[in-house]
Design brief:
The radius of gyration is 22 Å and the shape is flat. The chain contains eight helices and no strands. The protein is 68% helix and 0% strand. It folds into two domains: 135 residues, no CATH class; 77 residues. The protein is mostly helical.
Length: 236
Amino acid sequence: MAVVLLGSYLTVRALGSPAATSFQLWFWALSHNRVVDFTTGSPYLLSGLHLAFGMAWAVVYAAWAEPHLSGPGWRRGLLFSLVPWVGSVLVFLPAVGAGPLGLDLAAGPLPALGSLVLHLIYGSVLGGLYAQARPAGAPPLEELPEEIVDHLASMMRAERGTAVGLGAGGLAGFGVGLALARLIHIELMPASDLALPLACVLVGAALGALAGSLVGTYASAPTPGTGTGTDTASRR
């Protein structure tokens, strides 16, 4: 998704012009605004957040969405991608000063449409990758051996723990980064001064994901020889 985003930015920048038709003016406004202004440092922070959110949504998809969706993997991923897209245009874009649907950028519908295309690509690739690990013709869970069921349950707990830890760690890291920046009197607008909060977000997210994965794997784990705790006879 990051590669597609970079390619889209370069394409939009090449097509845009401040003295042209409305359509070209939209392209120009999309690539010349305060959100992508490198002199403010915003692109550096947004790139880190983009990477963190991409990993977080992937874990959320694996832990909660993918098991409950039907159809081919790419279609499951496309359906799921609408959730982060709505969050992007209604929460993330207003939070960075672009307004709902990115309308404050004076780029027409391009911010919302571009975000939709990027998320659809992200979702289809994500769904396709997870579909390879879970073939459509796999037998139902109740027909699998008890050891495999225990292993799948452990993996699901680990994925959910990773999702929670990733988000909590990222938020905690952001708070620590802001506190440290204020403590040493750093202004957060220059590009070089964004390194500390961004580094804290990434480190916090990584540590949170690791801790969440370990806690999820071993918390409520079945005692050896007892299986998942369910009545094995009833599953057979």
